[in-house]
Amino acid sequence: MQVAMIQDRIVPVEELELVYLDRGIYFGDGVYEVVRSYDGKIFALQEHLQRFASSLAAIEIIGVDIGQIRQRVQKAFDAAGIANAKIYFHITRGSAPRDHICDANLEPNFFLTVTELLDNTEEKTNGIAVSTYPDWRWKRCDIKSLNLLANVLACLDAARKGCAEAILVDEACLITEGSHSAFFAIFGCRTNCSHSDTFNHQRAGFHRHQSIGAALQTAPLTANILPSITRKFAIKAAQNVGLEVLEKSLTPQQAGSADELFIAVTTKDIVPVVRFDDKIIGDGKPGKYCKMLIQEFRRFTI
Ligand code: PDD
């Protein structure tokens, strides 16, 4: 008899529930999304669904009906009745006995949860501490894959150091992003006017407002980082308040000397960073631009 064991219970292999054969568990063979709602309204669902479709295509899970995913998200959200909700969903390649290779016609598995989002006013008001960690991830971090072991190890390390997020640093000593967030620095004119870098003035679809002599800097969109949806709106907010935007990677030294830092992620939107490893940022409290960006971002969510 072929057997499996679940905790201390012996189960005949042929009686195993499909969930135990999910390729997501064995191989992280799937992709996911996290969407949120603000006061009963789902935010940026279209953008998340588009990224989900790109992730599916990148790992060659074909035939998923994105219109149907949209309906499922809406149906579950309505059923939950949670005003400020976190909606997590993933699709794995399907269930089969563990083997690297699998039938191309495997039926993908869909899973979704709607849970209450904790209020993060305290983090937004007081800021968070972050710590650096080596970026040990694979070379396709633009795919929102279920393989998150390197992210989890980084985040556990940060938590042990009393930090809320790990900031990943690659082999070239450049910051890529957070373990589960995008990462940004703001430099006032004091540091920036001496820069010889050219600023990206004309991102398609973004308004340019009068410059206020300060700049927002974040890593460019490459295969090394996730094309964060919150990043896109944070950049839009920055341009709306008159910050120049520079998409260029930072070193940890540069980040440590920034006037302001923040992370951006769907579940929290913009969260000021007031300590970077052992460096206190600004006066150790969220700076004026972070506060402005939080306000500006809120306007997108109404
Ligand atoms: N993480 N970078 C990484 C590595 C991430 O995992 C995330 C999001 C982001 C921010 O992306 P977005 O703005 O689209 O949420 C950047 C999610 C929320 C998570 O894994 O829980």
Briefly characterize the structure.
The chain has 302 residues and is of the alpha+beta class. Helix content is 29%, strand content 27%. It has helices at residues 23-27, 45-58, 66-80, 121-126, 149-160, 189-192, 229-240, 252-256, 288-301, and strands at residues 3-6, 9-12, 30-38, 41-43, 85-92, 109-116, 128-134, 165-169, 175-178, 182-187, 215-218, 244-247, 260-265, 269-276, 279-280.
The CATH topology annotation of the largest domain reads as D-amino Acid Aminotransferase, Chain A, domain 2
| Alpha carbon gap, first and last residue | 59 Å
Rounded mean pLDDT is 93
Q: Report the structural category.
A: alpha+beta
The domain count comes to: 2
Strand content range: 25-35%
Question: Could you say what the CATH architecture of the largest domain is?
Answer: Alpha-Beta Barrel
Please give the count of helices: 9
Radius of gyration: 21 Å
- Main pleated sheet: 9 strands, mixed
Overall strand count: 15
Weakly predicted, low-confidence segments: 191-208
Q: Could you say which overall geometry the principal axes of the C-alpha atoms support?
A: globular
CATH superfamily of the largest domain: D-amino Acid Aminotransferase, subunit A, domain 2
Molecules bound to protein: N-(5'-phosphopyridoxyl)-D-alanine
- Fraction of residues in helix: 25-40%
CATH top-level class of the largest domain: Alpha Beta
Explain this structure to me?
- The protein is an alpha+beta fold and 302 residues long.
- It folds into 2 domains: 3-116, Aminotransferase class 4, branched-chain amino acid transferase, N-terminal domain (D-amino Acid Aminotransferase, Chain A, domain 1), CATH 3.30.470; 121-301, D-amino Acid Aminotransferase, subunit A, domain 2 (D-amino Acid Aminotransferase, Chain A, domain 2, Alpha-Beta Barrel).
- The protein has 9 helices and 15 strands.
- It has helices at residues 23-27, 45-58, 66-80, 121-126, 149-160, 189-192, 229-240, 252-256, 288-301; strands at 3-6, 9-12, 30-38, 41-43, 85-92, 109-116, 128-134, 165-169, 175-178, 182-187, 215-218, 244-247, 260-265, 269-276, 279-280.
- Strands 7, 8, 9, 10, 11, 12, 13, 14 and 15 form a 9-stranded mixed beta sheet that branches. It has a 4-stranded antiparallel beta sheet with strand order 4-3-5-6.
- Helix 7 packs across helix 9 (288-301).
- The chain is globular and about 70 Å long.
- Residues 191-208 have low confidence and may be disordered.
- The structure holds N-(5'-phosphopyridoxyl)-D-alanine (PDD).
- The site of N-(5'-phosphopyridoxyl)-D-alanine (PDD) has 15 residues, from helix 7 and strand 13.
- N-(5'-phosphopyridoxyl)-D-alanine binds at residues 34, 151, 177, 180-182, 226, 228-231, 264-267.
